Fold these 2 entries.
Entry 1:
Amino acid sequence: MERFDKGFKDAKLAIDALTGKGFSATAAAGFYWGAKIVTKLARSESIQAAVLLHPSFISVDISVKISPKVAHGWAVWYDVEMK
């Protein structure tokens, strides 16, 4: 079993519970190791938005998806004017 499978399964249970309560969209944020789990959730289309903060165990081939016109910034400093 991959080291992140339990976290993915636990998060998926929580997302499924929210969907069962009528939520139509969910998002997740992952810090450090949690970023890997959030990436897996996004790739499985379990969530509609993902935030990765200081991610680890992430490779470019599993995380890249172009989303035009999406604002970006930093976890502790954000500037919408930054190009």
Note: The CA atoms of residues 39 and 63 lie 7 Å apart.
Entry 2:
Amino acid sequence: MFNTPTPRRVAAALAAATLVTAPLTVASLAEAARHHGSHRGDWDRDRMPNRWELQYGLDAHKPNARQDPDNDGSRNLREYREGTNPLDADTDSDGIQDGDDANPTVPDETYQPTDDGTDGDNPNI
């Protein structure tokens, strides 16, 4: 009825109470900060969350905010902030590239690629 300490119980208690330590080095601190530090949601500190970068196949460990993989004139950080796809030059499929589109997530129904600018949508500005 009593919890008599047996060798097995003593060994289990010691194992549970033992603190595992490893040498603390600058490299181990840097690696810990990289994955678990104050920037845990943005490992490369490029102001774009890891989940967004990974969603679009970008490298979450390499700062790539200034890159423009779809060559639409809108860099990755702007694509993230505007909610557009960094791999699709025309996220809303309205014929205007995201970098030139005033509303890149809302299709402009009046835009025509051969527009002469007389209908007021100013595509040539």
Note: The chain has a mean pLDDT of 80.
